[in-house]
Structure formats: structure tokens, C-alpha cells
Design a protein that fits this description.
The protein has 266 residues and is mainly alpha-helical. It folds into two domains: 16-131 and 241-265, no CATH class; 153-226, no CATH class. The protein is 65% helix and 3% strand. The chain has helices at 22-36, 44-59, 63-70, 74-87, 104-130, 133-144, 154-184, 194-200, 202-225, 244-262, and strands at residues 93-97, 100-103. It has a two-stranded antiparallel ribbon with strand order 1-2. The longest helix is centred in the middle third of the chain and has 31 residues, at 154-184. The protein is flat, with a radius of gyration of 22 Å. The model has no long low-confidence stretch (mean pLDDT 82).
């Protein structure tokens, strides 16, 4: 299951979504996440579902990548649902057995949280699946550029964020290899209580940290060998520039946001 995490992975393509300016995609992703928590009616998520479906179709990203990204959060969804259902004591009493009680408001809140988490994961996954690490770096640096007048290290921060995001799939793959190596030696990660399972992870964490530091050192050496000196004197082959495709997307996305958020007051 750990290899199913799609956050940080990039799927090359030439779709309309792939060709959009990374600055717009980053801002749109943040606004998309924010608007999920402004929705207070179930039927509003029908429009969110339709919008996400259209974006996935246009991006030509296979549904199996979306499904793979959702599998690892299944336990989180179940935990969130249980926590909200049994910890909320408002609304109409639907079920009571001993000290366990379920209220209508608890079911409502749990449903909202599950839907929001699902769309949140899909939205962030689409950003990384359709935007290359170089585009993400350039986009973030461009967005941070106005802060340079305050001596804000825009390029360095953008580079760190992109490298961290890019290393997620690498660390996941490394963890999977270490787990398989430990399991071949008789390690068991799937049985026992929480404490036993936590202790069984120690043989994984030590080599994972060692390999992570090794990879970071190799990356630093490689960057120094290529005379990397941050953003100083750096030029770009492809300069970011909004075109008609981006302006059209901005208009459509703005209309979508206004429409969906307005359902909050209807």
C-alpha cells in the first residue's frame, strides 16, 4: 500500500492541463483546497465531483493513479469518520447502545470530512501528476519573487520545497525495499498491537534515515559539480508567460469558484 502514494509523482503528457502555467496550477490548487472547507451543503459537492471529473478527463491521467492515491488514506478516512460520529453529540439521536450514541450531526460532520479529504487528495495529486519538478520550482520561485525586496530567499525556498516533494516517491520506494528485505528475514509488520507494530518499524527507520542522508549528500555533490549557486545568474530556457490557454482557465475556474461558494448562501 505504501507504494500507492501518488503525491510527488509526475506523469509526463501533452494534455491541456499539462501545458497550463505552473503558477496558475499552484494557486488554483490552493484555492480549490480552501473552497472545499467553505462548502456547507452536500449537493454542492456534486459540482465539485463534476469539475474534478472534467479536469481528470482533460489531463488524460488514468483513473488508476487517482485510485492509488486514495488507497493509503483509507484508514485515515475510517478513523476520521469514527471520531466524528461518536464524538459529536448534537442533532437527532439515531442510535444508542450502552455508552455508544450516534447523532445526526455526527453523521453529517463525518460525511463532510470524508468527502473533503477525498477531494483534497485528488486535487493535490493532480497538481504533481501534471506538473514537472522543474515547472514547480519555476512556478514557486515566480510566486515568491515579490518577497525578494525583503531579502526573502525565493529561489532557495522554491528549490527546497520542490526537492522535498520530489523525494516523496523516492523515500516511499526506499521504504518498500527495506520492508521487503526485512520481511525476507522474518520480520512481521502486520500482526500484534500498536506498540508491537511501532517497535517493528525501528529496523526500517534506521536504514531509511541513513539512505536519506546519503541521497541528500549525493544530490548536494551533484549540484556543486554543476556549479549550482542558487538563483544567482540563473537563466531559463522556457520563461513563464501566461497565454490564452491560461487566461481561459482562469476565467472558467473563477466562475466555478464563485458558483460553488455561492451555494453556501442558497
Amino acid at each position: 500500500m505504501i507504494k500507492d502514494i501518488t503525491l510527488g509523482q509526475y506523469i509526463p503528457g501533452d494534455s491541456f492541463i499539462h501545458k497550463l502555467d505552473p503558477r496558475f496550477k499552484i494557486i488554483a490548487s490552493l484555492l480549490f483546497i480552501a473552497h472545499l472547507f467553505l462548502i456547507n451543503k452536500f449537493y454542492s459537492y456534486i459540482f465539485v465531483f463534476a469539475f474534478i471529473g472534467i479536469v481528470i478527463y482533460i489531463s488524460k491521467i488514468k483513473l488508476r493513479y487517482i485510485y492509488k492515491g486514495l488507497k493509503p488514506i483509507f484508514i485515515l478516512l475510517v478513523f476520521t469518520a469514527i471520531l466524528n460520529i461518536f464524538m459529536t453529540s448534537r442533532g437527532e439521536l439515531l442510535f444508542k447502545w450502552g455508552f455508544l450514541t450516534i447523532y445526526s450531526e455526527g453523521v453529517r460532520v463525518a460525511s463532510f470530512m470524508i468527502i473533503r479529504l477525498i477531494f483534497l487528495i485528488i486535487g493535490t495529486s493532480l497538481l504533481t501528476l501534471t506538473t514537472s519538478p522543474i515547472q514547480l520550482t519555476d512556478g514557486l520561485e515566480s510566486l515568491f519573487t515579490p518577497l525578494k525586496k525583503y531579502k526573502f530567499p525565493a529561489h532557495e525556498l522554491a528549490m527546497m520545497m520542490t526537492i522535498a516533494l520530489r523525494f516523496i516517491p523516492t523515500l516511499i520506494e526506499e521504504t518498500d525495499k527495506i520492508m521487503k528485505a526485512q520481511m525476507s528475514r522474518g520480520a512481521d509488520f502486520s500482526t500484534g498491537g500498536i506498540i508491537k507494530r511501532a517497535k517493528s518499524l525501528l529496523p526500517i527507520l534506521v536504514p531509511l534515515f541513513v539512505n536519506s542522508f546519503k541521497r541528500a549528500d549525493e544530490l548536494g555533490i551533484a549540484m556543486e559539480a554543476r556549479c549550482y549557486r542558487g538563483g544567482e545568474g540563473r537563466t531559463r530556457m522556457n520563461v513563464l508567460k501566461y497565454d490564452r490557454r491560461d487566461y481561459l482557465s482562469i476565467i472558467i475556474f473563477s466562475i466555478y469558484l464563485v458558483f460553488v461558494i455561492s451555494t453556501r448562501f442558497i
